What we know:
Blueprint: H1 53-73, H2 81-90, H3 95-128, H4 142-159
Helix pairs in contact: 1-2, 1-3, 1-4, 2-3, 3-4
Amino acid sequence: MSQIPPAQDPNGAPYGAPHAAPAGYGAPNWAQTPPPGMNGVYEGPLNGTPLSDSDEKLWGMLAHLSAVIGYIVGAGFLGWVGPLIIFLMYKDRSRFVRFNAAESLNAAIATVIAEIVLSIAVTIFAIVTLGLGSIAFPVIVVPAILHFVFAIIGAVRANQGTWWNYPLNIRFIR
């Protein structure tokens, strides 16, 4: 007696046999699984409506670019507003967007702190040197320039869907 071959689905696998889930359905999402060793990633549950891959890349990029726009519009001190807004809007919807917004927000907070400390230090230096130390005042904008450059790099990386940490970043928020 011969056996009847099992019916097959269009991909050639027998019906009822285990098979790989189509992309985007039950498969691990690149935006929810950071590479090992990545600093500052929120590990808790996300309970918001998930975003599409293109939206995750877009909002991750805008989290960084909003800091750049904040520096241009706010004379160097408003680089934290845009990342904060994006963080609050998307923190429960996408681990990738949350990471990028937190990374940019942390850099902006560290930049403001560094600028305040440098302002105080340079002012004291200028007073002690009877005004000669006032030539050091341009040093105060160095942290903002660094964040500006890192934010552009972060925006490009986020648009490519790459997880990237700012160098020398203090992580206040995850």
